[in-house]
User: What shape does this take?
Amino acid sequence: MLQRFVDETDTCTMSKPIASYSPFRRAGSTVYCSGQIPLIPETGELLQSTIDAEVHRAIDNLAAVLLSADSDLQKVIKTTVFLIDPRDYAAMDKAYRSRFSDPLPAREAVFVAGLPKQARVEISAIACD
Assistant: This one.
């Protein structure tokens, strides 16, 4: 049976949502994280750098959301990576691989026409405690 949803978003370590959504929702031992783009938490501005730096920033933001949900990157079982440029795939994969340990989460990468704030990458995740 699905337990009551818990949503705790009052934290200064993660970026504020830029639209109408929760950064995460918890159902029992499962945490569903909304997609994270490379926003700089202190300013809310989009990091515009190399795809490597942008992937690291998006994963830093994801880690902050997971921390707010009393979870962490090691508990991630599934991610979805959205990219706007297929040429960024190899660099994204290298940066992504450096942040997750074996066994790696299940993952798909999806190429899209655009992302919020003109970001080049967005990463969502599911974690299980």
In short: The radius of gyration is 14 Å.
